[in-house]
Recover the amino acids of this structure.
């Protein structure tokens, strides 16, 4: 695999995986229906 | 208005259902093909830009329209569009949100049934010892293709279609929390498990290992090698925007429907972002790491460039798995087609729910009766796709319902949201109860950039030039040679540009041209029928009030 292909792939994978995990962990930590009416 | 008592059981269940709605067959079959055909690694830049400027904003808009409509007791697009547009016209724009789901679910369930059939055949060892040609022929036989008959009648394909529809209807009849949510909680983790198994096996295939003639990494290299010159090609940008569009299941009315079961102050900003990025993870990380690396390892780069496409998943993959020995081949077959089945069913359930919601909200049908009605309609609508597959009915469903209608509805809904409902109210709606702070920049992106993006995709599909070569087409136009319209552009399709023989009958037998036009008439009739149902529902409401 060329260096440029490897860098493109790993960079994209890192961005996508990090954002996916960050948002999903946030979802798991705050259950639905706990908020009061604003 | 009778308010439904249905609600989501848990937040994780809702996000998994929404992600399951987005994650479909296209994540594993369409994305790799699009990336390969549009510059490999450079495709990802316009793809991610489109995701941020069009995909994510559209997700927030659709979640907001859905939750807003739900507060008025609407769980399908006609009522929701009425709630934000306040004019009868918008109700009829909302018809797209029922029509698209119904028509797409009809042919999508058919593809989904192939995956179920192939799980069974992988388990029963049908592909064991078969040559590549025999496995490819098995697919043709399965659908009864190339028989020379007018009708593609395959009892096996019909059987698996009925089983698939029955599973869908049974799950939908159990309701949101006990049906869709449980199916998503089981389906999505299994999909990820199968995906990881196949991706790890694929990426550890080295030259000479298990019959591989190349290293699988050559496939990854091919997929991820940047070709920056392609960034200036409008064809690549339109392909990337199109892929984002279809992968997120926006412009269908299914996201709206799921979001309508939220409470007034439930978050949508974080939920939408979470479901959207989960879809991207499945598509970019898993979708790009299975079919292309495995196929390149065994068949080489040249073969992939010539043959990459939708049917490859069925015609080629079972043969390649045979190289891994009988037991691992069976496991890989079950994992691959099982993965596709779970990707498919979590999407088809999301297509069924808006139709059921419409019947429940506007015609007061019980959940079970609306599920059975949906099942009956879907079965009838799927029959042309099954029996007239080679005559073009399947392709027409895919083009008009699965491609054109999505873009048209998304364009109209963002105009309704940002310009008719108003961006001030819209921004407040998106941010109410939000668990993340959305940058204010997106207020302007939603108002100006996303509609422009959608307009570009819409116009691009209407007048797409031959081979997607926009610069060559513009040069041709300015040199006075006219616009070289592509056969598969919307105008080209309406004009039947790709069909040389325009006769409807030859020797008393209907031609492909006839079937294509009749399929269009059928789809138009379905759209008109739903419009009539919407008209009658509101007329009854007006009489009652």
């Amino acid at each position: 695999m060329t260096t440029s292909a490897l860098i493109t792939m790993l960079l994209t994978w890192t961005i996508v995986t990090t954002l996916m995990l960050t948002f999903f962990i946030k979802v798991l930590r705050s259950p639905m229906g706990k908020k009061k009416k604003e | 208005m009778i308010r439904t008592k249905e609600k989501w059981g848990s937040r994780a269940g809702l996000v998994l259902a929404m992600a399951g709605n987005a994650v479909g067959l296209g994540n594993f079959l369409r994305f790799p093909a699009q990336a390969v055909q549009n510059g490999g690694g450079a495709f990802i830049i316009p793809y991610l830009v489109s995701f941020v400027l069009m995909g994510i904003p559209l997700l927030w808009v659709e979640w907001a329209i859905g939750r807003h409509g739900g507060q008025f007791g609407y769980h399908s697009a006609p009522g929701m569009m009425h709630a934000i547009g306040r004019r009868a016209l918008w109700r009829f724009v909302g018809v797209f949100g029922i029509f698209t789901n119904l028509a797409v679910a009809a042919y999508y369930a058919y593809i989904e049934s192939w995956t179920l059939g192939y799980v069974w055949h992988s388990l029963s060892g049908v592909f064991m010892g078969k040559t590549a040609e025999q496995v490819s022929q098995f697919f043709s036989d399965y659908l009864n293709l190339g028989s020379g008959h007018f009708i593609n009648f395959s009892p096996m394909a019909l059987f698996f279609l009925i089983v698939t529809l029955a599973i869908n209807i049974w799950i939908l009849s159990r309701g949101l929390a006990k049906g869709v949510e449980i199916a998503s909680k089981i389906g999505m983790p299994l999909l990820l498990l199968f995906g990881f198994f196949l991706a790890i096996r694929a990426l550890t295939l080295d030259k000479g290992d298990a019959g591989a003639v190349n290293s699988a990494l050559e496939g990854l290299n091919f997929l991820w090698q940047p070709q920056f010159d392609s960034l200036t090609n409008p064809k690549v940008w339109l392909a990337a925007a199109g892929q984002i569009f279809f992968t997120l299941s926006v412009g269908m009315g299914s996201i709206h429907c799921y979001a309508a079961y939220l409470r007034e102050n439930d978050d949508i900003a974080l939920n939408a972002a979470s479901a959207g990025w989960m879809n991207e993870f499945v598509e970019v990380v898993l979708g790009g790491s299975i079919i292309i690396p495995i196929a390149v390892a065994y068949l080489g780069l040249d073969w992939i460039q010539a043959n990459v496409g939708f049917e490859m998943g069925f015609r080629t993959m079972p043969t390649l798995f045979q190289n891994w020995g009988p037991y691992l081949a069976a496991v890989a077959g079950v994992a691959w087609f099982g993965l596709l089945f779970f990707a498919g069913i979590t999407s088809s359930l999301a297509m069924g729910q808006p139709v059921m919601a419409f019947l429940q909200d506007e015609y007061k049908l019980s959940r079970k009766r609306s599920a059975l009605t949906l099942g009956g309609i879907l079965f009838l609508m799927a029959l042309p796709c099954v029996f007239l597959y080679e005559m073009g009915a399947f392709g027409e469903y895919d083009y008009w319902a699965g491609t054109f209608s999505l873009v048209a509805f998304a364009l109209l809904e963002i105009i309704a949201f940002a310009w008719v409902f108003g961006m001030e109210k819209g921004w407040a709606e998106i941010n109410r109860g939000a668990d993340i702070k959305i940058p204010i920049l997106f207020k302007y992106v939603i108002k100006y950039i996303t509609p422009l993006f959608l307009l570009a995709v819409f116009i691009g599909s209407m007048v797409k030039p031959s081979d997607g070569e926009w610069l060559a087409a513009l040069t041709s136009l300015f040199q006075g040679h006219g616009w070289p319209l592509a056969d598969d552009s919307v105008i080209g399709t309406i004009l039947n540009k790709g069909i040389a023989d325009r006769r409807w009958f030859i020797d008393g037998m209907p031609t492909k041209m006839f079937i294509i036009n009749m399929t269009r008439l059928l789809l138009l009739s379905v759209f008109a029928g739903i419009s009539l149902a919407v008209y009658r529902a509101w007329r009854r409401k007006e009489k009652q009030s």
Summary: The two ends of chain A are 54 Å apart (CA to CA).
